[in-house]
Specification:
The complex is a heterodimer of chains A (265) and B (891). Chain A has 265 residues and is α+β, with helices and mostly antiparallel strands. Chain A has 4 helices and 10 strands. Chain A is elongated. Chain B starts with a helix and ends with a helix. The longest helix of chain B is centred in the N-terminal third of the chain and has 36 residues. The chains are: A alpha+beta (265), B mainly alpha (891). Chains A and B meet through helix 2, helix 3, strand 7 and strand 9 of A and helix 5, helix 9, helix 10, helix 11 and helix 12 of B.
Chain lengths: 265, 891
């Protein structure tokens, strides 16, 4: 308990100082991924180069000797296994790598806390943020809005607004993800998971399923349409509380849609 | 089926009968004689010198060129070769499935496009994962473990040779069963992770799906038997002077692998038993309506699944350590820290599993905890990587094929490991979940492990066959392999946004997938080069002596290639600080042997002579025993037909079980065949178990050596304790599953199934009394009271029957109320958990009956160890009931 209070305080501090990435999910992912990529590549290049360098330097040459001749004891058949010394250097390298890895992950903890925060959304102004329930099934997605309107395989949301998703499944374990918006959540029958995203550009995106769910898994896609705020407000007011099966029929190529779903194999 | 799994798998519900057998000489053994140590096709030049004359022949083992030999052998070297060869077969099968997938992935496919349908593709991807992880990787590693570990520790064989052969035949049976599953409407198509509720018949109804699950169950039985064997061997049969800290690194990795296997596979066993019950009997643990079912599976599977990836990788790490030392000519830098790091990983592997579940509904505190433990487990690996790199410094490095593969493996593992750190950052995992970043990561680390194991194959090939492979072809193999590997897996990082198990990916990623497909074929071609190289070298390769590798130092290089049947000339000992063979030329050294270990555990039922002393033995000038049957000196057996028979029986039983679906057999001809298979298999298995128990089989002698911390615990007893440890985890998982589901459904609102506490209470008293009678039996046998022994064992038997009758009445009453296994989740958990316990009681009663019969014939008065070990088992079963009774009847 004290640990989580302490780390929350620390990350709050770091957030204030701008070291913790904030913003949209895209923003957050990009910043952290870039840092990891740069550091990871650096570490990889350094370590692998060092490996190759040593392998080259101490290779056996044509005369049967190497640069390591006479510098270290050689193993003898039948000896009781012992080590080759060198513990201190090992510890230093290990310590350094541990520091790098732990601080890197510690840094991301602040962002994790940020992502896990769920500020409230106001029902009165859906164009500024709303909660949508996502229900996966074999092999499509159903979206339910706060006013009761239900859509099949198309999710319409306003731009620049926080969209909170409550994700579940009607049958098997799925996973709902919108790759271009960097949001994803497991869809588990009998459970509800929550996540959120902010789309800062209008357009049409694709949502996919990221957990094997049967023979239609490869084509379990949905369309995500990000609309300008006033357009969204218009559209939302015009929806009735009945589910609308005809207007929002999915268009994405290759989608099997709800009617083609086959249970089992 | 749980009954079958536990008896078929361990054979040690009957503690004395595994490899104790009867200590009588092998008067009635096969009359075949053989001249000298096994020969290989093509005729390895037999060493006609001292070694051969010392060992002479094992009169029971047919020559290596005969098929019969391979069916009856129990020698660890033969079993090792069987494992290696069979594993390579499954590698090819899994590889072909991968190539099919890669062809499908050449372009994004709309429904109906490509060579595979959605269902076929899912079968391919699931079978590829299952075959590679279970039927290829570990068995391949254990081929080496079988062959090399006894040599490295100075033992003549594993502790229980027949069980060793049995593990192999169960493994092969399980693999055959898996292949059969393709032909039963399609194999399991829900991913190697088999998530719930996709894994229940509602969503995967094909019979082949059940067969695949049963095949995996049988495989787990094989692994459990193997674990008990290896643990007993490595803890109790090390040469003098070889303390645990002196074990060669390869043996260390196998030791840790086997400890992890014991506990991890018990959890998988529970998961698979519950899944089988859902599929075959209709229980509802994982049904879609079950409140916690989906998450329960995820917890059970990943609790197993994470240690599993280290189980799979550790032997490769061991091979890397061995080859790095040999081919650089240096001892491992920081060796004791390397060992400490490995031990840490083995322990930590059990507390990281929820990093596979970061996107489920677990709460933030738990996610944070597992993020921390996951990063924690990456740190010991950093140390081990550095240790290997530093070992090359000041070395004299020879880039021969084994080292090329090991060195390459380290490189690939470093890349894979770095990408794993990405996945450990929860915020990144939120996006990487279910994408090819995960796929690329685990292929780099796991196939990186395979790379090292191939290095091991080249390294130990000369030892196992007596011939050297072709070095040029080996280098060609490596070049093709390394290029192919990176061509197939690196683009997966670049195309990481592709969802897993999906062949309809965004068009802009197509080029990466095409390159990957080309790489896959290059990688496949490299294996063709390898098979060609090894096969031709088997016949035409240059013959080698004991040690073709300069600086190789472990004990396997101090004996001939291949080693003689009983491994060493004399008794290996490190007491002087280096390897020596003591007592060469003198077969019997009673002072070197511990009195009570002079022969393998005998059950005393048939009158035998006193424990071996030198006197009555007839030996010729070289210490070679003349004839057999003349004394009960330690003349070890090397062959038995029962492991093969029991493997066959198990195959038939499990195949037959696949015909069950939610409580009934499927209809028609298919159902009839499967039912027939079930019945035939039961008969064959039963006969085999009895045969195995009655067989006169003399296992390897346990000589004076290092046995910490089990110096005073005899082999059979240690085996029993280890088996029980695994059983504890099994019941723990079952009880934990019940608790988890009950919490998810609402603890207090859950009405216990038994409406009346009475029968349960009665059964508690019955079992407690039976524990008491078992103690009485031990006391009676110590006092050499035949009637006391028979009476108390019979009382135990009667009480056990009483328990079963009482339970039968209770269940019958419930059935009449319309409450079956499949009625609801409360009945499912009740019947399955108490049923598993009941199956343990039944198994125990079979043993009790056997013990009574033997006691009637005068057994156990001199040597009452079987009664003691049976007592351990029986007390365990009773203790489990003490947990089940309150949980299912009272709270």
């Amino acid at each position: 308990m004290t640990l989580s209070i302490g780390t929350t305080y620390l990350s709050g501090l770091l957030q204030v100082r701008g070291l913790i990435p904030r913003g949209t999910r895209i923003n957050v992912f990009r910043s952290i991924f870039d840092v990891f990529l740069v550091l990871g590549t650096l570490v990889g290049v350094v370590v692998v180069s060092y490996m190759l360098y040593n392998a080259y330097k101490y290779r056996e040459r044509g005369d049967g000797k190497s640069a390591g001749e006479g510098k270290a004891e050689r193993p003898v058949l039948g000896e009781l296994p012992t080590g080759g010394g060198g513990g201190r250097k090992l510890f230093l390298s290990f310590g350094l790598s541990a520091v790098i890895v732990v601080s890197l992950i510690g840094w991301t903890y602040g962002t994790l806390l940020f992502v896990e925060q769920t500020p409230a959304v106001d029902d009165e102004a859906p164009e500024d943020g709303l909660v949508v329930t996502v229900e996966g099934y074999q092999f499509g997605w159903e979206f339910q809005y706060p006013n009761g309107y239900v859509a099949q395989n198309t999710l319409r949301v306003p731009v620049d607004a926080e969209i909170r998703l409550r994700v579940t499944s009607r049958d098997v374990f799925h996973n709902f993800g919108i790759p271009e918006l960097r949001v994803k959540s497991d869809a588990i029958p009998g459970q509800e998971t929550e996540t959120w995203f902010v789309a800062d550009e209008t357009g049409t995106y694709t949502a996919r399923c990221y957990e094997l769910c049967g023979s239609g898994h490869s084509h379990m896609v949905a369309e995500v349409i990000v609309m300008p705020k006033d357009e969204f407000r218009e559209w939302y007011r015009n929806q009735s509380t009945e589910s609308d099966a005809s207007v929002d029929r999915p268009a994405p190529a290759g989608s099997l849609g709800p009617t083609a779903g086959v249970t089992g194999a | 089926m749980s009954d079958d799994a536990s008896t078929a798998g361990s054979g040690s519900g009957r503690p004395a009968e595994t490899d104790g057998g009867h200590a009588e000489p092998d008067g009635g053994a096969q009359a075949e004689t053989v001249g000298g140590p096994p020969e290989l096709p093509g005729g390895v030049a037999r060493d006609e010198g001292v070694l051969n004359r010392l060992f002479g022949t094992s009169d029971e083992l047919p020559p290596a060129s005969s098929i019969r030999r391979w069916l009856v052998t129990t020698n660890h070297k033969d079993v090792g070769i069987l494992y290696t060869g069979t594993a390579l077969f499954f590698l090819v099968l899994g590889g072909i499935l991968a190539l099919l997938m890669r062809i499908q992935l050449l372009a994004p496919r709309a429904p109906g496009q490509g060579i595979l349908s959605g269902f076929a593709y899912n079968q391919a991807v699931s079978a590829h994962g299952l075959l590679m992880v279970f039927w290829f990787l570990s068995p391949f590693a254990f081929g080496f473990a079988n062959y090399i570990v006894p040599l490295q520790i100075g033992a003549k064989d594993l502790a229980f040779p027949r069980l060793n052969a049995l593990s192999f035949w169960l493994y092969l049976a399980s693999g055959i069963l898996f292949v059969i599953s393709f032909f039963q409407g399609g194999t399991f198509a829900g991913g190697w992770t088999m998530y719930a509720p996709l894994n229940v018949p509602t969503f995967t109804p094909e019979v082949g799906g059940s067969t695949a699950v049963l095949a995996l169950l049988l495989f787990v039985a094989s692994v459990t038997v193997s674990s008990v064997n290896f643990l007993t061997t490595m803890h109790r049969m090390r040469a003098e002077g070889m303390k645990l800290r002196n074990l060669p690194i390869f043996t260390w990795t196998i030791l840790l692998t086997v400890w992890m296997m014991l506990f991890a596979f018990a959890a998988l066993l529970a998961a698979l038993m519950i899944l089988s019950a859902d599929r075959l009997l209709g229980t509802t643990y994982f049904a879609a309506e079950s409140a916690g079912g989906s998450l329960l599976w995820a917890h059970l599977f990943w609790f197993f699944g994470h240690p599993e990836v280290y189980i799979v990788f550790f032997p490769a790490l061991g091979v890397m350590a061995e080859t790095f030392q040999t081919f650089t000519g240096r001892r491992l830098v920081g060796r004791k820290w390397f060992i400490a790091a490995m031990v840490l990983v083995a322990l930590q592997s059990f507390v990281v599993w929820m990093h596979h579940m970061f996107l489920t509904s677990i709460n933030l505190e738990i996610k944070t905890l597992f993020m921390a433990t996951t990063i924690g487990i990456s740190l010991p690996f950093d140390l081990m990587v550095f240790s290997l790199i530093y070992t090359t410094i000041k070395g004299r490095i020879r880039f021969e094929t084994p080292f090329l593969f090991s060195f390459g493996a380290l490189l690939l593992f470093i890349l894979g490991g770095i990408t794993g750190v990405f996945l450990g950052a929860v915020v990144l995992d939120y996006e990487f979940r279910g994408t090819y970043w995960v796929v690329a990561h685990f292929h780099y680390v796991m196939v990186g492990g395979v790379t090292a194991l191939i290095g091991g194959l080249y390294y130990w090939f000369p030892k196992m066959t007596g011939r050297m492979y072709d070095e040029f072809l080996g280098k060609v193999n490596f070049a093709l392999y390394f290029v192919g590997f990176n061509l197939v897996y690196f683009p997966m990082f670049l195309a990481w946004e592709t969802p897993r198990r999906v062949f309809n990916y965004p068009a802009e990623l197509q080029l990466y997938h095409q390159v990957a497909t080309v790489g896959a074929f290059v990688l496949g071609a490299s294996f063709l080069v390898m098979f060609y190289n090894l096969y031709t070298s088997l016949w035409e390769g240059e013959k080698v002596g004991d040690n073709p590798w300069e600086y190789a130092k472990s004990a396997e290089w101090a004996v001939s290639s291949p080693p003689p049947l009983e491994n060493f000339p004399g008794r290996p000992s490190y007491a002087s600080g280096a390897l020596e063979f003591l007592g060469v030329g003198d077969d019997d050294e009673p002072d070197e042997r511990r009195e009570d270990e002079g022969v393998a555990a005998a059950d005393g039922g048939v009158a035998t002579g006193p424990p071996a002393t030198a006197e009555a033995s007839a030996v010729d000038a070289y210490g070679h025993e003349v004839g057999h049957g003349d004394h009960d000196d330690h003349h070890e057996s090397h062959a038995s037909p029962w492991p093969f028979a029991l493997g066959l029986g198990s195959l038939l039983v499990f195949l037959g079980l696949s015909g069950m679906k939610e409580g009934t057999f499927v209809g028609g001809a298919e159902g009839a065949i499967l039912l027939g298979s079930l019945l035939a298999g039961t008969v064959v298995s039963g006969v085999s178990l009895v045969g195995m128990g009655r067989e006169r089989f003399v296992g390897p002698e346990v000589e004076a050596g290092e046995q910490w911390p089990f110096a005073n615990v005899e082999n059979m007893k240690l085996g029993m304790w280890i088996f029980l440890a695994s059983d504890v985890v099994l019941f723990g998982a079952f009880i934990g599953s019940y608790v988890f589901i009950r919490v998810a459904a609402g603890w207090t609102g859950w009405q216990p199934i038994p409406q009346d506490v009475g029968p349960g209470l009665m059964n508690t008293y019955i079992l407690l009394t039976s524990s008491f009678t078992v103690v009485l039996a031990l006391v009676a046998s110590e006092k050499r009271s035949r009637w006391g022994l028979i009476a108390s064992l019979s009382a135990t038997f009667v009480l056990g029957i009483g328990f079963l009758i009482n339970k039968g009445i209770e269940w019958n009453h419930l059935f009449h109320e319309g409450i079956w296994l499949s009625t609801n989740i409360r009945s499912s958990t009740f019947f399955l958990t108490t049923g598993l316990h009941g199956a343990h009681v039944i198994a125990g009663l079979f043993v009790t009956a056997y013990l009574i019969w033997r006691a009637w014939n005068g057994a156990y008065l001199d040597d009452n160890r079987p009664v003691e070990y049976f007592g351990l088992y029986w007390h365990f079963v009773d203790i489990v009931w003490l947990f089940l009774f309150p949980l299912f009847y009272i709270v």
